[in-house]
Write a structure and sequence with these properties.
GO molecular function: ATP binding; transmembrane receptor protein serine/threonine kinase activity
Protein name: Activin receptor type-1
Number of domains: 1
Strand content: under 5%
Shape: globular
Radius of gyration: 16 Å
Main location: membrane
Largest sheet: none
Subcellular location: Membrane
CATH class: Mainly Alpha
Structural class: mainly alpha
InterPro entries: TGFB_receptor
Mean pLDDT: 87
Length: 89
């Protein structure tokens, strides 16, 4: 989509004019935690600034996602790393 180290002008064209966003790996669709992260990220990418999540709303959604994803089921190392990052400090 863009070169390794894109200029401001290239990013402005791709993001603002063409309204393109990065894609997510297919594996994310098979994982409840990563699906939730994907939804939150996409909500932060709205073209309309007023429609984007506030930092408080992101915090609340991440906290809820972490709570919802906690279960006795064994999680992968990557999932555990993500859950550790989302823990309130």
């Amino acid at each position: 989509m863009v070169p390794h180290d894109p200029s401001f002008e290239i990013m402005k064209e791709v993001v603002c004019v063409q309204q393109k966003r990065p894609t997510f790996p297919n594996e994310w669709s098979n994982n409840k935690l990563l699906q939730g992260m994907m939804v939150i990220i996409k909500e932060c990418w709205s073209q309309n600034a007023a429609a984007r999540l506030t930092s408080l709303r992101v915090d609340k959604k991440l906290t809820k996602l972490l709570t919802d994803c906690k279960s006795p089921v064994v999680v992968s190392e990557v999932e555990q790393d993500i859950m550790d990052l989302l823990k309130p400090s």
